[in-house]
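Write out this protein's structure.
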Amino acid sequence: MANIPTPKEIKLHQKSRLLEIQFDDNTECKLSCEMLRVYSPSAEVQGHSPVQAVLQIGKEDVNIVKIDTVGNYAIKIK
């Protein structure tokens, strides 16, 4: 079974609108707030079925205002 990297640190860079995630295998990724909003799994974006998905436009200036932990491994981004 493959080892799945676990996030060890999550940093929000509000000025550049980037969410930086560092993993325990020393990999790192930076995700733009715009990309996270456009590809959100929320019903607002994806609908309740694939035919209900809504093209997201005008999200260039979106930013994250809060990050909450959920349970032992998830986060909720607002």
